[in-house]
Amino acid sequence: MKRSLPALLAVTLLAVAGTSLYSQSQNEALRPARSRADETLDKWNDIGNKLVAMAQDFPEDKYDYKLQKDQRTFAQNLLHAAAFEYVVIRAVSASNIGPDFGKGDNPSRDAFKTKADVVKFVQQAVADGASVIQQQGDAGLDKTLPWGNRLVHGSYIWMSAIEHSGEHYGQLVVYYRANNLVPPDSRR
């Protein structure tokens, strides 16, 4: 009987604590949803800032590293991701925002020779995209735009860009690991 009393006491305390925590969370009101533009901006900046951190962190002497001969180098991945962001920014804003890097979304490494050039390009793409999202707000997400051979909402185009950047982020994590380095976001 003596052994069951401490166990009963422990179970009772856990039940009371659990009920208290549950009722506390039930009484707290959920924060209201922010605007869709603010939520899109958060996701844009989240992945964009991860790419910027990698661009700043990865050793410059490894910027031309690639896992296989038919792949993009580390720098080319960053340049491609930022260039695609500009393709999106230009489509959504119907303007020619950003630097001239030629046609398509694969700028020449010759135009971005140093690590500083690449970092600046990635940073500017993230900042320019954030600016357009803020300027257009929810109305920009609702606007119907041509994308490929169809019409889509602005939100679809932004989601495509965010996902695309996430795919390249994953690729760059592999480049880090293959060089026995830890990506900045994994160091937290």
Description:
The protein is mainly alpha-helical and 188 residues long. It has helices at 4-27, 36-57, 74-93, 115-142, 154-178, and strands at residues 144-147, 150-153. A two-stranded antiparallel sheet has the order 1-2. Helix 2 runs antiparallel to helix 4, helix 3 (74-93) runs parallel beside helix 4 (115-142) and helix 3 (74-93) runs antiparallel to helix 5. The model has no long low-confidence stretch (mean pLDDT 90).
**Poorly predicted ranges:** none
Termini gap? 49 Å
Largest sheet: 2 strands, antiparallel
Report mean pLDDT, rounded to a whole number: 90
Which term fits the overall shape?
flat
- Please estimate the helix content: 55-70%
Report the radius of gyration as a whole number of Å.
23 Å
| Count of beta strands | 2
Tally of individual helices: 5
Question: What is the H/E string?
Answer: HHHHEEH
Record the strand order, biggest sheet: 1-2
- The structure class reads mainly alpha
- Portion in strands: under 5%
